[in-house]
Amino acid sequence: MAFNLPSINLPKIRNCSRCGKIFTAMHGEKICRDCVEKEKAFEEQVVKYIRDNPGSTLKEVMAATGANEKMLNRMMQDGIFSNAAVDKPKDATYPCMSCGRPITSGTYCMDCLSRLRDQTKRAAERMQIRIKEDKKMSTIERLDALAQKEFERESRMSGIKRNFSKGMFKNN
Ligand SMILES: [Zn+2]
Ligand SMILES: [Zn+2]
Known about the structure:
The chain contains six helices and four strands, in the order αββαααββαα. By secondary structure, the protein is mainly α. The chain binds zinc ion (2 copies).
């Protein structure tokens, strides 16, 4: 097998394949830094459109943003957005587990996710305080307290599940 790494690593003077400007390619780039910046801004527009219009088809994304299919495919390959977010029928959205807002991926919408993260953080902080207090408790007392906590968590979860299934069957 032949290795041609040296030719890739050497800085090269070349014309930007996008705007034609002469630039120094440090790592085999084909387009100049200005065009990279422009492309990044364009990609951000596309990502924003997909985020604001969940369940859009690739055609709709192209029509709304001016991006072409090649660019969208490359962005998906690079993991800039998930192909799960596009090219699905609009009714492929499902409700957020917490607030019922339509989402296209994951379990919770972005708002609920950040709220849940805050709650988890605060709960973890409270647990730290509890653990300090727990040292005064006997093992049996500690187990009881843990079971009580687990029971509370379970009832909360089944409450959420009940609300979730109510939302799911609303349309039937
Ligand atoms: Zn350029
Ligand atoms: Zn939500």
